[in-house]
Design a protein that fits this description.
With 155 residues, the protein is of the alpha/beta class. The chain has a single domain (31-151), classed as Response regulator (Rossmann fold, 3-Layer(aba) Sandwich), CATH 3.40.50. It is 32% helix and 16% strand. The protein has a 5-stranded parallel sheet, with helices on both faces. 26% of the residues are buried.
Length: 155
């Protein structure tokens, strides 16, 4: 018979290391997170290029015809402009309607943010459907902070 004498501290260290292998770690980071901006303005605003320069993978489109387009499916963080996008999916709500449809379709698989150049959002629309909100003129650092915060919430 083999007599094994293991100290409790050693056992605890072993089990901690063992269970660490199975703990759910956030699988998304800067290297594998895709960001999408849906904005009808023809000129890219500087934040998109600044994010690209900082090493983020960023796409931008003027609009989407449906929420199952490739560019949408492969993105984890999506910024949706408040006005001018999503008109094919919701004429009256536009960006808000698009956000609602994205959240219905993808649930917690994607984090969807609302951003706008307007200081105030129309009171008639339910802006709480968005996971987060940012003004369009926010500093690049604010966009990065929002992205990093939302990455942690991805399922």
């Amino acid at each position: 018979m083999l007599d094994v004498n293991i100290k409790v501290e050693d056992q605890k260290g072993f089990w901690d290391r063992f269970f660490d292998l199975f703990k759910k770690k956030n699988k998304f980071d800067k290297t594998n997170t895709r960001i999408l901006f849906i904005d009808d303005e023809k000129d890219e605003f500087p934040v998109i290029q600044n994010l690209k320069d900082a090493g983020w993978s960023v796409d931008s489109v003027a609009d989407v015809q449906n929420v199952e387009e490739d560019v949408v499916r492969r993105s984890q963080i999506i910024f949706v402009d408040y006005k001018g996008v999503g008109q094919h999916l919701s004429e009256s709500e536009q960006g808000i309607g698009l956000i609602k449809l994205l959240k219905e379709t993808y649930k917690d698989q994607k984090r969807v943010g609302l951003y706008s150049g307007h200081n105030r959002f129309s009171l008639g629309h339910d802006i709480d459907c968005a996971d987060f909100k940012l003004p369009k003129n926010a500093d690049t650092r604010e966009f990065i902070d929002a992205i990093q915060r939302e990455i942690k919430k991805l399922k």
